[in-house]
From TrEMBL:
<dbReference type="InterPro" id="IPR016161">
    <property type="entry name" value="Ald_DH/histidinol_DH"/>
</dbReference>
<dbReference type="InterPro" id="IPR010102">
    <property type="entry name" value="Succ_semiAld_DH"/>
</dbReference>
<dbReference type="InterPro" id="IPR015590">
    <property type="entry name" value="Aldehyde_DH_dom"/>
</dbReference>
<feature type="domain" description="Aldehyde dehydrogenase">
    <location>
        <begin position="23"/>
        <end position="474"/>
    </location>
</feature>
<dbReference type="InterPro" id="IPR016162">
    <property type="entry name" value="Ald_DH_N"/>
</dbReference>
<dbReference type="InterPro" id="IPR050740">
    <property type="entry name" value="Aldehyde_DH_Superfamily"/>
</dbReference>
<dbReference type="GO" id="GO:0102810">
    <property type="term" value="F:glutarate-semialdehyde dehydrogenase (NADP+) activity"/>
</dbReference>
<dbReference type="InterPro" id="IPR016160">
    <property type="entry name" value="Ald_DH_CS_CYS"/>
</dbReference>
<feature type="active site">
    <location>
        <position position="252"/>
    </location>
</feature>
<dbReference type="InterPro" id="IPR016163">
    <property type="entry name" value="Ald_DH_C"/>
</dbReference>
<protein>
    <submittedName>
        <fullName>Succinate-semialdehyde dehydrogenase/glutarate-semialdehyde dehydrogenase</fullName>
        <ecNumber>1.2.1.16</ecNumber>
        <ecNumber>1.2.1.20</ecNumber>
        <ecNumber>1.2.1.79</ecNumber>
    </submittedName>
</protein>
<dbReference type="Pfam" id="PF00171">
    <property type="entry name" value="Aldedh"/>
</dbReference>
<comment type="similarity">
    <text>Belongs to the aldehyde dehydrogenase family.</text>
</comment>
<keyword id="KW-0560">Oxidoreductase</keyword>
<dbReference type="InterPro" id="IPR029510">
    <property type="entry name" value="Ald_DH_CS_GLU"/>
</dbReference>
<dbReference type="GO" id="GO:0036243">
    <property type="term" value="F:succinate-semialdehyde dehydrogenase (NADP+) activity"/>
</dbReference>
Length: 480
């Protein structure tokens, strides 16, 4: 891989400030199937070492002033931005997303580091009016301690920084296990953190067996908190595993985002929002629209305009200029997309565009639009995580809300309307942690990201993001 700074391509892991391990586990480019690097295959023993390093680093890191931690994080932010081109190239090669999207993710990932560098200084306590004349009641916030982060492949940089920056800002130390498909971006971020002056052991990054590393991170009593982004299935498993040591948890799990287009919507804006939310990262984000619910009066016109917009999308390797749709991450992802389409067609859906594996082969898939979708189809119940827009028809607002909420998930939801009364009614009725109203793009470091129901709990970004990494301690000072 041609990089400006070849030192960012790491084939070892970061434990206690030392780069260690034998490169074993192959990392492949999903656009070509080519092996691009190897990283260590660590298990429980190395995980214990990383946890011990984080434990040793904790007292000194916690004791620094918030401003000192903020200064180091700020340098990390600058270093990430300065390395944008290399980080984006590494990401595109291991993950598949178009280079323009990868650059966008680096800016987005860096924004969390900047934000939490600033928030580090604002972890305020409280003074509570006392229940007794001779006492004063105070609340202070302290770092949780050693934390663990397990992250997915769809946002190889941002899912790490929004956990790591919040943890470090709060005074915690961290062990990160990135997804096996995308460890290289994570390791490059670790290298930049080290250069920015993050002390040895404060951030440790280990690659290898998810089961073994996850087992140790959840069983080890030194780890006080686990933050996980990934599937609901694995989230439940990790929660059960964490019960033994009663860890604090943040769970950002799967979604099944509804996108409602009402009769009074601005249709061009709705099409633009649907494209942005559905096809970003080839449909592989947890806030991607999974079900597009369109009201009778505008259904056919919306479908027509959506198909025209979808025809403009360009499929290809992410490194090629102008490409907007990269490959799917792997063959199981491709199989799931095919199964969902076949199941929908079997149950009466019509293919308006796409529907097939792309002529490019590999894991490339045609951007697809289906109409006539119904709640009994697999794609109505599970996250497709691919470039398939599934259109459902509805008649009135009550039906739209019922359909939207007919899922165990509750991460993101979207709707388009110009009616102010309806906007409030629907926004309050939708069972989601985040709602896009007349927009398909909602993510920003300044707002709280997270879900409800089986999409998890905890919030990342915003002023709430750092709270997840601090404990409340109440002090009762009596005898005054
Ligand atoms: P995705 O569908 O995004 O791959 P997963 O939940 O399978 O979602 O994976 C998300 C992260 O969880 C990855 O880093 C993966 O390696 C990790 N993971 C998968 N299985 C386990 C497990 N049993 N224990 C701990 N981590 C796991």
């Amino acid at each position: 891989m041609d990089l400006i700074d070849a030192d960012l391509l790491r084939d070892t892991c970061l434990i206690d400030g030392i780069w260690t391990g034998e490169p074993k586990l192959a990392v492949t480019d999903p656009a070509t199937g080519e092996e691009i690097a190897r990283v260590p295959q660590f298990g429980a023993a190395e995980t214990r070492e990383a946890i011990a390093a984080a434990e040793r680093a904790l007292p000194a890191w916690r004791a620094r002033t918030a401003k000192e931690r903020a200064t180091i994080l700020r340098r990390w932010f600058d270093a990430i931005l300065a390395a944008t081109e290399d980080l984006a190239m590494i990401m595109t090669r291991e993950q598949g997303k178009p280079l323009a999207e990868a650059r966008g993710e680096i800016a987005y990932a860096a924004s969390y580091v900047e934000w939490f560098a600033e928030e580090a200084k604002r972890v305020y306590g409280e003074i509570i009016p006392s229940h007794r004349a001779d006492s004063r009641l105070l609340v202070i916030r302290q770092p949780v301690g050693v934390c663990a982060a397990i992250t997915p492949w769809n946002f190889p940089a941002a899912m790490i920084t929004r956990k790591a920056a919040a943890a470090l800002a709060a005074g915690c130390t961290l062990v990160v296990k990135p997804a096996s498909q995308t460890p290289l971006t994570a390791l490059a971020l670790g290298r930049l953190a080290q250069r920015a002056g993050v002390p040895a052991g404060v951030i440790n990054i280990i690659t290898g067996s998810a089961r073994e590393i996850g087992g140790e991170l959840t069983a080890n009593p030194v780890v006080r908190k686990l933050s996980f982004t990934g599937s609901t299935e694995i989230g439940k498993l990790l929660m059960a595993q964490s019960a033994g040591t009663l860890k604090k948890l943040s769970m950002e799990l799967g979604g099944n985002a509804p996108f409602i287009v009402f009769d009074d919507a601005d249709l061009d804006a709705a099409v633009e929002g649907a494209i942005a939310s559905k096809y970003r990262n080839t449909g592989q984000t947890c806030v991607c629209v999974n079900r597009i619910l369109v009201q009778d009066g505008v259904h056919d016109e919306f479908a027509r305009r959506l198909a025209i917009a979808v025809a403009q999308l360009k499929v290809g390797p992410g490194t090629e200029p102008g490409v907007t749709q990269g490959p799917l991450i792997d063959v199981p992802a491709l199989d799931k997309v095919e199964e969902h389409i076949a199941n929908a067609v079997e149950h009466g859906a019509a293919v308006l565009s796409g529907g097939q594996r792309h002529a490019l082969g590999g894991t490339f898939f045609e951007p697809t639009v289906l109409t006539g979708c119904t709640p009994d189809m697999a794609l109505a119940r599970e996250e497709t995580f691919g470039p398939v827009a599934a259109l459902f028809r509805f008649t009135d607002e009550a039906e739209a809300i019922r359909l939207a909420n007919d899922t165990e998930f509750g991460l993101a939801g979207y709707f388009y309307s110009r009616d102010i009364g309806r906007i409030w009614r629907v926004a309050e009725a939708m069972e989601c942690g985040m709602i896009g109203i007349n927009t398909g793009l909602i993510s920003t470091e300044v707002a709280p990201f997270g879900g409800i129901k089986e999409s998890g709990f905890g919030r990342e970004g915003s002023r709430h993001g750092i709270e997840d990494y601090s404990e409340i301690k109440y002090l009762c000072m009596a005898g005054l």
